[in-house]
Design goal:
The structure is a homodimer of 259-residue chains. The first copy, chain A, is an alpha+beta fold and 259 residues long. Chain A contains eight helices and ten strands. A six-stranded antiparallel β-sheet of chain A has the order 4-5-6-9-8-7. A two-stranded antiparallel ribbon of chain A has the order 1-2. In chain A, a hairpin with a 3-residue loop joins strand 1 and strand 2. In chain A, helix 1 packs across helix 2 and helix 2 crosses helix 4. The longest helix of chain A has 14 residues. The interface between A and B is large, with 51 and 54 residues. Strand 10 of chain A pairs antiparallel with strand 7 of chain B, so a sheet runs across the interface. The structure holds a DNA duplex (30 and 30 nucleotides).
DNA sequence: GGCTATTGGTATTTTATTGGTATTATTCCG
DNA sequence: CGGAATAATACCAATAAAATACCAATAGCC
């Protein structure tokens, strides 16, 4: 509602008398977007709302809106509404919450989807045997997916677990952690390591960037309450499109860091 | 019961009239979770309960709940109920602990030293004026150093502060924060942004790596208790030699969900 | 162990709201 | 006068929101 009012106020104050109505309206909307009054993903008032409130015909409103749609500023969905086009910019992900990828993107009005790259049981690599504590006769479950926002690939996630805790990788729904819950294997602690790497050919191709550009690499090892390692995940994020944000607090002078 | 009432109260007070019902409900639940009114592991009222008490259809309730399930906020179990999902949270780390390069390296048994690249007062750049809230007549103190562990250059740190809080950059000893303490300017909060970049020629030469290799870039803005920005630091770490480690812990119910 | 109330899961339909389009009148300017 | 830009009217089509009715799994009680 507020967003709408911003536009209307702007339209009123616009002393561009003489110019065609649809041009005045177009400029008002454009400016509202550029000034951030309505952000990417936000919905505009319906064409009829704008028309009645601004007391002009809907076709005139439509002309203004369509110009902006053609210019890529707005996006329209039949039966749904008109929205400010999501810009990719840089995506910020809070470090404090892990599972919020989908939620985070949805809040920005981005269309999120995942593509499975791999889901299956394999003979473990030496690395996996070490970290997960497997013998060479046991199997490892590998789960890999490409995360995509607005048709732009953002990250590759590769998880490895003991086949004992995830006997059927194909059965995973949208959340790996949810699947672990159902088998009673809950990680209670994890250690994450963030580093930077130059993307290799394969990963670069998946993320649709030239090989060699910088990527954020995150390795995570999750532990059960018993201290046993349950999961080992290596994720690569596009460096040009992703930021990790962490908020820090300084402990007081008297307090110890951790008892 | 209490948890349910919290939600309903929130739903009533929500003056988001006009918005779709399921969105209002979704926001209410989301906020209840974020504010800790219902913690991880707690059960939500049944879909039918919510529906009848809020006087809306169950499908509408379901739509809201399912969105949150997809986002990983809630977990549903057929025949059992809907629960707040346990989530991984980063264990709180103190500012000094996270940023103290020397301490970090010493813990790994490395011999650490620094080389000053720059220490002086300058006219502020537009960026610095913006972030630090300076006028063009004020001066900015810039402090830059190359950090070296075991004779291997690991990072470049460039800090910018108002000249008011650091009138004599040359007088800094080994710790910038110690110098700030003595003038009574103590940051209590900081926001960090971690990203990846390909190192430019100058930085690559300082870090003794070929240009173009991946580097971890960390931007940090520190705040005083008053909320004023006191420091703006941009650091670049060699991606192949430095890791940023964070520990995560799963917050959830003490008891097991599934026996 | 098996029954049963309670829980989430699903399919189908109705309705209101949204953008989409064709047609027509008006104004402005060469 | 004529053509193009502008604006208004009336109607079409797609989507989302919401409700109804029914299915299936779980937990708890006997």
């Amino acid at each position: 509602m507020s967003a709408a009012d911003q536009i209307f106020a702007m339209l009123k104050e616009s002393s561009q008398s003489g110019a065609p109505l649809y041009l005045q309206l177009r400029r008002s909307i454009e400016e509202a977007v550029n000034r951030g009054l309505i952000g990417p993903g936000d919905a505009l008032p319906s064409e009829r709302d704008i028309a009645s409130k601004a007391d002009i015909s809907r076709v005139t409103v439509r002309k203004a809106v369509q110009d902006l749609v053609k210019g890529g500023i707005l996006v329209q969905r039949h039966g749904s509404g008109t929205f400010v086009a999501p810009r990719m910019e840089r995506v910020e992900q809070s470090l404090s919450r892990l599972t919020s990828f989908t939620e985070d993107m949805a809040r920005r009005g981005m269309n999120v989807r995942s593509v499975w790259l791999d889901r299956g049981l394999y003979a473990p690599s030496p690395d996996e045997m070490m970290v997960l504590g497997l013998s060479s006769t046991e199997l490892v479950a590998r789960v890999a997916r490409l995360r995509i926002a607005n048709d732009t690939p953002l990250a590759i996630e590769r998880a490895a677990l003991s086949a004992n805790v995830l006997p059927d990788p194909e059965a995973i729904g949208s959340s790996l952690y949810a699947a672990l819950e159902t088998t009673g294997n809950r990680p209670v602690r994890a250690v994450q390591r963030i580093s930077a790497t130059n993307l290799g050919d394969a990963d670069a191709r998946l993320l649709e960037v030239p090989p060699g550009v910088a990527g954020l690499q995150i390795e995570r090892i999750s532990y059960l309450a018993s201290g046993k390692v349950i999961e080992f995940t290596r994720s690569v994020y596009r460096g040009d499109a992703y930021d990790f944000v962490a908020e820090l607090r300084l402990t007081g002078p008297g307090e110890e860091l951790r008892p």
